[in-house]
Please model this.
Amino acid sequence: MGETQVASAQPFVLAFDSTHAAMAAQAAFKAAGASFSLIPTPREISAGCGMSIKFKAEGAAEAQAFVADTVTGDAAKCATLYEATGYTKLS
Model:
């Protein structure tokens, strides 16, 4: 998953329990060369931190695999993945 996005890609939101975890994940996404936006956590998502990462993937399985491969350590333990349309919790 790099800078180029496919037209069929879906948006996902990765929310965090702490600002430290959000910043660590942001650094991991940058290091992976992923296209993403740091956004305020949507009101529909209940999370301890006001920061989230919005990114696109081909589907839920790809989004989960990318997050699992990219976000590690404490940031991974504090992260919750949602589909951005309807904010369905994935992990």
User: Anything to note?
Assistant: DSSP finds three helices and four strands in the chain.
